[in-house]
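New to this. Please check this fold:
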Amino acid sequence: MGEKTEFEPGDKAPNNGVYMEVGEASFHTEITDPQQVKLHKGESFPETTNKDRKWKKKTKARVH
């Protein structure tokens, strides 16, 4: 099993980084102005804007 990629409020951040809100269907759901937070490993995720959202690590877009 791989590392978990979506997190709920109260979960602990597995690594340092910037995390952003995603919708129920992950990146397929458009969210206008999603929250972003910078967390250090072990810090708790804050509450999301609504109960159907989760946190996901923001990664750089790949350029081919």
The CA atoms of residues 19 and 37 lie 5 Å apart. The beta strands are 6-7, 17-22, 36-39, 54-57. Residues 1-58 form one domain. The radius of gyration is 12 Å.
